[in-house]
Amino acid sequence: MKLTAKQRAFVDAYIECRNATEAAKRAGYSERSARQVGANNMSKVYIREALAARLEEIETTKVASMKEVMEFFSSVMRGKETEQVVTAKGDVIERSPVVFDRITAGKELAKLYSKCPAKDIEEQDLRIKKLRAELNSMNAEEKHGGITIIDDIGDDDDGEETD
């Protein structure tokens, strides 16, 4: 459902103050009805969804993506980033990263690569194989009437009975 102008203003105000009554006042609702309107707005699913979407939008613009981080470390490692430094004489100069900074960026980049999805893919493949085996086992049970007899009472791996 599409929000009215006041409801959009309410969502933006609520993000700022985290108080429904205050958000209603800031959105232009009357002082007298602000508490009721604020509570009513927060009970509407489409307003809560708009609020969640707006919060997500704000967070994604504030938080650097993994790609951005990797690009930054790569540019520092390659000496492409510059920074302003104050000299002993008080002059401000632009300088490229020193070797220590470039090595540090390389190490941080290597850490990120070590968390690369390649390991996750291997783990996913193992999970898929396990699930397929379980599915095959379940299918085999179905072929035999869905009954599985498990007789492991008193048995160990070595085949001897226990007390």
Brief descriptors of the model:
2 strands; 63% helix; 5% strand; Arc Repressor Mutant, subunit A; mainly alpha; two-stranded antiparallel ribbon; flat; 3 domains; 163 residues
Shape: flat
Q: What oligomeric arrangement do these chains adopt?
A: single chain
Strand order of the largest sheet: 1-2
> Which percent band covers the strand fraction?
under 5%
Please identify, by name, the CATH architecture of the largest domain: Orthogonal Bundle
User: Mean pLDDT, nearest integer?
Assistant: 80
Round the Cα radius of gyration to an integer and report it. Answer: 30 Å
Structural class: mainly alpha
SS element count, helices: 7
Helix amount: 55-70%
- The first-to-last residue Cα distance is 68 Å
Write a short abstract of this structure:
The chain is 63% helix and 5% strand. The chain contains 7 helices and 2 strands; from the N terminus they run H-H-H-H-H-E-E-H-H. The protein has helices at residues 5-17, 20-26, 34-43, 45-62, 66-77, 99-114, 117-143, and strands at residues 83-86, 92-95.
Task: Characterise the protein shown here.
It is a single chain. The protein has about 160 residues and is mainly alpha-helical. It folds into three domains: about 5-60, Arc Repressor Mutant, subunit A, CATH 1.10.10.1400; about 65-115, no CATH class; about 115-145. It has helices at about 5-15, 20-25, 35-45, 45-60, 65-75, 100-115, 115-145; strands at about 85, 90-95. Strands 1-2 form a two-stranded antiparallel sheet. Helix 2 (about 20-25) crosses helix 3 (about 35-45). The termini are far apart. The mean pLDDT is about 80.
